[in-house]
Amino acid sequence: MTRKTGILGGTFDPVHNGHLALAEAAGKLCNLDEIILLPAAVPPHKQEAVSDFSDRVAMLEIAVRERPSLHFSTIEQLLPVPSYTIDTLRYLLLHAVQPVDFFFITGADTFLDILTWKEYQALLRTTHFIVFSRMGSDNQKMYDLFKRFDYQEKGAGWYHAASQKWIYSSSIMLPPVSSSEVRKRVAKGLPIDKLVPRGIPEYIRQHTIYSAG
């Protein structure tokens, strides 16, 4: 039986409630068996420095403890840097212990930049996509891009006949939080308890991450 696995990549610097809401919404939308949070070792599109990989992974481990459908993978630490999505998915497919369909979870703004991704055409042939936009967004540019890639609107999503891959799109109301906001609040000594999963504030304090100076 083919396992339906969602993939949510990012720096997770740190993981916050918006990440978890996105992952759980994707799981419900496509009835996924599991969602893997995939921290990038060296993200290709990030210009600012990121925290140590070990700290970001430790915070992910805390975040998923009480969420049985969520897991995390440290595979990008073992792969060549920077961390390209197509390379990671090829590795995961090669080492899968059972048949798997991947569903790559992303935001609409990120998907609109897919032409800049490494081997984006191969990526579209390798995985399904779940693309979320914010409530009230104008998604016409995104739909035009789907059509440009020869996806046809069909039922609950967009289907590519040759690759037999789907793109599912949905609007979502996400918690108003970003990793940069969390880092700034920590540096200013402000509380972050309502922005991140339980246990993350304690870890950040104990390991003095993001503190000014």
Q: Short summary of the structure?
A:
The protein has helices spanning 17-30, 53-64, 85-94, 108-111, 120-126, 140-148, 179-187, 200-206, and strands spanning 3-10, 34-39, 70-72, 100-107, 128-134, 152-154, 157-160, 165-172. The chain has 213 residues and is α/β, with parallel strands linked by helices.
Question: What does this 3D model show about the protein?
Answer:
This protein has one domain (3-176): HUPs (Rossmann fold, 3-Layer(aba) Sandwich). The model has no long low-confidence stretch (mean pLDDT 92). Strand 7 and strand 8 form a beta hairpin. It is an alpha/beta fold and 213 residues long. It contains eight helices and eight strands; from the N terminus they run βαβαβαβααβαβββαα. The protein has an eight-stranded mixed sheet, sandwiched between helices. It is globular and about 50 Å long.
Order of helices and strands: EHEHEHEHHEHEEEHH
Average pLDDT, rounded to a whole number, is: 92
Distance N to C terminus: 52 Å
Category from helices, strands and their pairing:
alpha/beta
Number of E-state strands: 8
Write down the overall geometry: globular
Number of helices: 8
- Could you describe the largest sheet, including whether it forms a barrel? 8 strands, mixed
- Low-confidence spans: none
Strand content: 15-25%
Q: What is the gyration radius calculated from CA atoms?
A: 17 Å
Output the keywords.
213 residues; alpha/beta; Rossmann fold; eight-stranded mixed β-sheet; 8 strands
